[in-house]
Design a protein that fits this description.
Elements (H helix, E strand, L loop, with lengths): L29 E3 H5 L8 H10 L5 E7 L8 H9 L2 E12 L4 H10 L22 H7 L3 E9 L4 H13 L6 H4 L2 E9 L4
Parallel strand pairs: 1-2, 2-3
Antiparallel strand pairs: 3-5, 4-5
Helix pairs in contact: 2-3, 3-5
């Protein structure tokens, strides 16, 4: 069960400048939804994304940059379908998502059975966290396909990771969870499949 702390500001998205390095060299028309959503959104950015999409009436775009907005969306497929309407065939949607199985989050959840907020990795109140396994499913729900994923490494204590990986294995998680636990975030390039 999530325990919210009302005094911490809630953000709908964060601008991830590294994500911009994944833009195609030929991308001329780029919609920056990340700028429209950061900061000041709410825990669930579904309405904010719908509003930002509605403001971009001069498409189609070569790319849409969402930043960390998908961490704050309750209905991922619906949000991605709306964004898909902004891009040209083979256009790109770029997003950064937080890894649900990252060591520091996974360990806290198992130790305390509660999320920890504040200055840590959950400071921006994500309502949705992702794994490498469900990103392609969410993209497909939005009418997109995953072109590539780049992992942002997490600086983690190897002994702690090994311990939690063993516990996760005993709980029935896949055998490569140790590698997955050392990924902080995933930068994802999704594409419009065309007509």
């Amino acid at each position: 069960m999530r325990r919210w702390h009302p005094s911490v500001p809630r953000l709908g998205g964060v601008v991830d400048e590294v994500l911009l390095d994944l833009l195609d060299a030929g991308a001329r028309r780029v919609a920056r939804l990340d700028l429209a959503l950061a900061p000041g959104g709410d825990v669930a950015a579904d309405d904010a994304i719908a509003h930002a999409v509605a403001q971009h009436t001069d498409g189609p775009y070569d790319a849409v940059v969402m930043g960390t907005a998908l961490d704050h969306v309750r209905h991922v497929g619906k949000a991605l379908r709306a964004v898909r309407g902004l891009i040209a065939p083979e256009g790109a949607v770029l997003a950064t998502v937080t890894n649900l199985l990252r060591y520091d989050l996974y360990g806290r959840l198992l130790e305390r059975d509660a999320w920890t907020y504040g200055e840590g990795p959950l400071a921006h109140y994500p309502v949705k966290l992702y794994t490498h396994f469900d990103v392609p499913n969410h993209a497909a729900d939005g009418g997109l396909y995953v072109d590539r994923v780049e992992d942002e490494p997490l600086d983690a204590d190897p002994r702690g990771v090994a311990t939690w990986a063993r516990v996760a294995g005993e709980m029935g998680y896949h055998t490569d969870i140790e590698g997955t636990m050392t990924v902080a975030r995933m930068r994802v390039v999704m594409r419009h499949p065309g007509p």
